[in-house]
Amino acid sequence: MVETLVLPEGLKLESGAHLAPLEIAYARYGDPANPVVYICHALTGDAEVVTWWDTLIGPGKTIDTDRFHVICSNILGGCKGTTGPASTNPATGERYGLDFPLFTVRDMAETHRALLRGLGIEKVYAAVGGSLGGMQILQWSLDHPDEIERAVLVCATARLSAQNIAFSKVARHAIHNHDAMDVARMMAHITYLSEEGMELKFSRARRVPGAEMTIQSDFEVEHYLDHQAKIFLARFDPHTYLYLSRVMDYYEPFADGPAAPPTKYLLVSFSSDWRFGTEHSVYMEEQLRALGADVRHHEVESPWGHDSFLMDVPEYHRHVRDFVYQEAAATL
Amino acid sequence: MVETLVLPEGLKLESGAHLAPLEIAYARYGDPANPVVYICHALTGDAEVVTWWDTLIGPGKTIDTDRFHVICSNILGGCKGTTGPASTNPATGERYGLDFPLFTVRDMAETHRALLRGLGIEKVYAAVGGSLGGMQILQWSLDHPDEIERAVLVCATARLSAQNIAFSKVARHAIHNHDAMDVARMMAHITYLSEEGMELKFSRARRVPGAEMTIQSDFEVEHYLDHQAKIFLARFDPHTYLYLSRVMDYYEPFADGPAAPPTKYLLVSFSSDWRFGTEHSVYMEEQLRALGADVRHHEVESPWGHDSFLMDVPEYHRHVRDFVYQEAAATL
């Protein structure tokens, strides 16, 4: 069940803007007496983590809600209950839309911290996130290293490449200039899969083999993209897409010269991920090691590209399990 | 200078549709007494090959217009003088638009052949094309192997992958549903460059370092995409984009079981090309060898992705020179 914490005093953003009130939608699973595992979701997720990340999280799963108290909140700027561009701007009584202030991954991490303070929790046993989720945890751990004992960053990045920013730009251009979030979503799906994964899944199969040529959708991969775009338009706010894609472009936490974190890190990357591939995790690994951090990094073979973090890839789950339960027998 | 051949009887397309009249815009360079090198252009090119392919073709260049008679025509379905969706439909007196018949790469090759017949030319010393240009030459050489002595196929393909078709689909969806050819062009530019090339060219440079965050273009790579989209909108027809992208999706010449071609082939692919990368050329090489063809394939190191075929990459030019001039001392 999703609950909402309302902070009337709001949050002062890194830009200086003051966002008030701040509402944070969150969900909790398992016994509050158990160690806390905090989940940060990625671009299009929400607080109900046992639904969209059920490969990893739930009763008896790798992140076992029978043994941990799992908390996840909709992220700042989101459209699933936490204050974002679709929320009402108290200054106008209208939706914020493009008047919503620009924010940073640090602001997103501060929102998670505000939630935990509201729940009376000072530190977490582990924090876990994939992609933009991992980016939030990394920033949080660098800013407040005593609050996260173990950080699991799956196919995350600490610095988008020019190509990453380019895809991000095209998505924003489609949304902003053409009201075409469906185009943005289709393009994103191509970057979430791998060439190899798409070949395995679709190859050149046509819905009606041997039919006449058509300019309309014909190949199965086309129908897949049509379907993904349609369901996404029904569930997501275009302004949230604009803001969250932009947050990622500017993210560069190691440029701030952070201090040595006592957090222990597990980085997982996937062999066929070409969105935030292994070189992104290698960069984080190098930067964290240079700070003296305890960090391990595993590249896991998988044909499913960036999407692998949401899938049941046994070697990846084994690394997460080994890391999360290590030295934990006494506690758990 | 671009001239136009008008064929009142038109062309019967592979689909059975009859396209009449057929106009073919073409340009010729160098002495007509010299051996003919025929150029097929790619998606967005035109007949004036010494302009857009001046790295390779011109006086004293690798394809030397002082030694060869170079001919290039705007391709079928194009928007630079040859009959296409922007032409007038004689049945209605209006632009064809989406009433233009669907056509195939074979129809494109037949258009080139019709031009040559009109010019009184029966066979060519060499045919050269990159990307979609190479695809036309491959089809032509398989259908009429006696007409092309030497074929140079640069970063071409004989079968688009699921990922290729997916990008093609998103481009068409943007144009067809959102009148957003700018989005299609921006996305295409990402696929024409490589991750490495974009990093070398743009990295994370911002137009105004240290300026405030903005949802508008800020990083240099964003301004580059804005610029490319703007100039493209001014020069290209969206319907041509729709049709030519679709032609490529359906292309699969080896599925027809062609006969052994006497044409000699040079295939060049580029190490960082992820649109029609080396695996595409390897597939063509294998298929041509299985037919008993004389084929050589070189993968050339280059950071510039698919765009490498338009650039001055010395090793690539050397392979083209060696191949085009081989056994040719007497003739030339």
TrEMBL record, chains A, B:
**What does this protein do, in the record's words?**
Transfers a succinyl group from succinyl-CoA to L-homoserine, forming succinyl-L-homoserine.
**Where does the entry annotate site (Important for acyl-CoA specificity)?**
R275
Subcellular localization(s) per the UniProt record: Cytoplasm
Q: Where does substrate bind?
A: R185, D307
Q: Which PANTHER family match?
A: HOMOSERINE O-ACETYLTRANSFERASE (PTHR32268:SF11)
The secretion signal range is none
Query: What is known about its subunit structure?
Result: Homodimer.
Name the gene behind this protein.
metXS
Q: Which GO terms describe its molecular function?
A: homoserine O-acetyltransferase activity; homoserine O-succinyltransferase activity
Q: Which SUPFAM superfamilies match?
A: alpha/beta-Hydrolases
Recorded protein name is Homoserine O-succinyltransferase
Record-level GO BP terms: homoserine metabolic process; methionine biosynthetic process
Annotated InterPro entries: AB_hydrolase_1, AB_hydrolase_fold, HAT_MetX-like
EC numbers on record? 2.3.1.46
Give the CC-aspect GO terms: cytoplasm
Organism encoding this protein: Solirubrobacter phytolaccae
Q: Which reaction does it catalyse?
A: L-homoserine + succinyl-CoA = O-succinyl-L-homoserine + CoA
The family classification in the record reads: Belongs to the AB hydrolase superfamily. MetX family.
Q: In which pathway does it act?
A: Amino-acid biosynthesis; L-methionine biosynthesis via de novo pathway; O-succinyl-L-homoserine from L-homoserine: step 1/1
* Keyword set, alphabetical order: Acyltransferase, Amino-acid biosynthesis, Cytoplasm, Methionine biosynthesis, Transferase
According to the entry, every stretch annotated as the AB hydrolase-1 domain falls at: 35-310
Does the UniProt entry include the keyword Cytoplasm?
Answer: yes
Its taxonomic placement starts with: Bacteria, Bacillati, Actinomycetota, Thermoleophilia, Solirubrobacterales
